[in-house]
Structure formats: structure tokens, C-alpha cells
Amino acid sequence: MNAKILLVEDDTSLGFVISDHLKNLGYEVTLCCDGVEAIQRFNQEKFHLGIFDVMMPKKDGFTLAQEIRKVDKEVPILFLTAKSMTEDKVAGFKAGGDDYLTKPFNFDEFELRIHSLLKRVNLDLVEDQMTGFQIGKFHFDSEQHEVKLDKETKNLTKKENQILAILAKNKNKVIAREILLTAVWGQDDYFVGRSLDVFITKLRKYLAGDEKVQILNIHGVGFKLECPE
Q1: I need a surface site. Which of 13, 40, 68, 176 has the fewest CB within 10 A?
Q2: Which residues touch 227 (CB under 8 Å, ≥6 apart)?
Q3: Architecture per CATH, 132-226
Q4: Which contiguous run of DSSP H or E holds residue 193?
């Protein structure tokens, strides 16, 4: 299977140039123009590599990497930046980055660094975007936005689907509130926090048909979808 790359670059022209180059090399590329959009896409799809510009509006590359590392410790991250100071590189590695390339860069070197990072990822063992989940007695199809129990099907709204997909990918693990909020709404504030609580209540009702399945509120931290493996 082809490696899927999340490319985040706020310079539209440069973003398209890099994206086209990567596609010509055979990679599948998702291009985002800021960190807010990128964290949403990351939590909706499976990527094998992240290539992040550092200086971006709304959410910079270092912050984006830190948020991704809360849910994925393994995906390789390559930073692109106009800064070449040692302290900036150190900050990038502390944020969770694996490599660092200073603009303007040579595309031959760029390709070699990507190839090196992707060697860490066994593509034969990595599932493509996972869309089917077993949640206790329920089958959840995130592609179709459906939760099924026997012959009964419940259709989910877009946000219900996004929230349940994140919880289902991390069954029996605690997911921080801010991860859900930034992944689904792109921001973390009081008003969207209240919206999240409403959607969690709805999802609990949808899953009430299996008493072993619960969405637990871990006070002061976040939520956990608890169910039998």
C-alpha cells in the first residue's frame, strides 16, 4: 500500500508544489493549511508520516506535534521551517518531531529524509483508514455513520460520528477532553465543551443496548469508551 502523508503548510503555493512532488513519487497526500485543520484530519484518518511547517496561523507545527503525540507516539514527524537556530531544532525534537529540514531545501534531500522516516513504518502491518469497529454487541461503521445492533441501525450526525470514531479507535483508553474538542471543533473553550457533553449524552443513549458498554467521564481528564475486547 502507498504511504499516506499529512502535509501541513500555510504557504498555499509551496504546499501545492510539495504535494504534487510527493504524489509524483507515489505517496497519498492530504494537504492542510493550518494546524487546526490538520489535527481534525489526523483524528479522522490513518497517516504514516506528518510533514509540518513550524510557523502557521491558528496552531503552529510544534503545538500540532505535541497534540498528536498525546494520541500517537509512533507516527514519524518531519518539521519544515525557515529557522535554522539550534534552539529551534531542539524545541522541535522536544515537541515530538523526528527530523528537521530548513527551507529552502533540496528535493533530493527531502526525498531521502522521507524515505528514511518511512522505513520505520511497516506498511504491510498498518491498517488503512479503519472504518469498522466492534463495540461490545454493536458494530460501528464510521464511513457510513452507522451504529448497528442486530437488525436495528442508528444513523449518526457528522460530529457524533467523529467523536465515536476517536473513542472507538482508543477503546478502553482515556482520551483527554481537549483532544476531542480540537479534533472535532478545532478549538477548546467553554461553549464547545458544553456541546461535547451533549453529544456524549446522545452517544450513551445509542449504546444503551449493551450494559457492558459505557462512555465513562473521567473527572478532570476526559472520557473512556469502556467495553469488552
Answers
A1: 13
A2: 135, 136, 171, 172, 210, 212, 213, 214
A3: Orthogonal Bundle (1.10)
A4: helix 190-206
With cell 464510521, the residue in question is: 142
C-alpha dihedral sign at 154, 159, 160, 165: positive
Instruction: Give the three-class secondary structure for 72.
Output: coil
As annotated, the residues of the chain forming the CATH 3.40.50.2300 domain(s) are: 4-118
- Which CATH superfamily, name and number, covers 4-118? Response regulator (3.40.50.2300)
- Percent pLDDT > 90 in the chain is 38
Q: Are 213 and 202 in contact (CB under 8 A)?
A: no
pLDDT tens digit sequence for 127-173: 445 678 999 999 999 889 999 998 899 999 988 998 998 899 888 98
Coil, strand, or helix at residue 54?
Answer: coil
Q: What are the start and end residues of each CATH 1.10.10.10 domain in the chain?
A: 132-226
Closest CA to 184 of 207, 167, 201: 167
For the full predicted model, state whether its pTM sits above 0.70. no
